[in-house]
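Per reviewer request, we include the raw input and output of the structure prediction for the construct analysed in the revised manuscript.
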Amino acid sequence: MLKIGGAGEGAYADFDYWLANAALKVDLNALSFNGSSGRDAVHFHRSGHGADAPAGVMFGHTLPKAGDMMVSYRYMWGSQGGTMLQGANRSPDSALVTNGCGGNPCYLTPRSMSMSMHMVDLMVAPTDWLTLMLMPQFLDMDMDMRLLDGAPPSPSAHVIHHVQNGHETGGIGDLGMYALAGLFDNGVHHVHAAAGFSAPTGDVNNRLRRNHSIDGGFIDYGMQLGSGTWDFKPSLTYTGKLGKFGWGAQANGTVRMESRNESGYRLGDLFQATAWGNYGLTSWLTASVRGVYTIQGGIHGKYFGAGSGSDDPFTNADGSPTSILKFGPQDYPQNYGGRFWDAGFGLTAVVPNGGLTGNQFSMEWLQPIHTDFNGYQLDREGALSFTWSYGF
């Protein structure tokens, strides 16, 4: 699911940062869909099963026939800000101080958080009914903090550093490997299933540091770059198209296949159901609307050494310093997950002729409609998805 930043860390947070660049160079004049016309190139995308699914829908289409290939770039951005919520209701600072940190006092809370995710979809169809997909991804996230009104004096100077310096993480995320199988297609209605795994290539041990010698503990759970576990990701998608009208629905999920990751916790399972409709405004431009319902499970376990067996957030049961300093709701696993309703509005365009014939561009804005968090969390502001794809 996705979280955004990219500048320096200031004097407080410190993390390993790896940046990988890859390029695919395509001669657009040579790749003219086996010599087909621009009109046929548009047809490739429109007949590519489910190709008009909104930009925010993953696994929304398969490739039409054996030997087809497609490369896509996806960008997803999400933002949280405004007020803190308890469940679906606004939470004042006084409630956060008293109840937001599992019986311990809270000293600060997030002011804003953003996440960007860059993904490359590499798809190939070895047969008419099977499409294989490889999806590497890169993430970066940032979070700003503020002191809570009415918070008691903090026993640690780290609190001031949290507020004075934003938190940022960035790097390679988890690697997705999927197979999509066509189950039914009669030219109007199409059904396909997808199944695959997400490999834990994203870091889950990013830490905060005041300097290179003083360990500030693990950064909060939502700022890590992956799940840290092998995850199973199934989905079932139905699409239909008749004239200028199209429609579709999908159910998908994420099942964590390990009890905990190397840092001691496991993210919650996820289930999502979505349905959409679209209309062809022109031969090359389609508008869509979509509804989404998501259930995100809470975090199981907690960071190793996170004050286990002790009521003091700064010490372990044996009196030794904890390896995580817990100052706000974001540091407690019970304040993750929830149930969400969203509405999406999107456009999809296929270049009909010229040097960019056959290139497809899609964008979608996802607007939160209803939020019901587990525990105390920062309100959601919305999410943007953009995709570019080219088939050959």
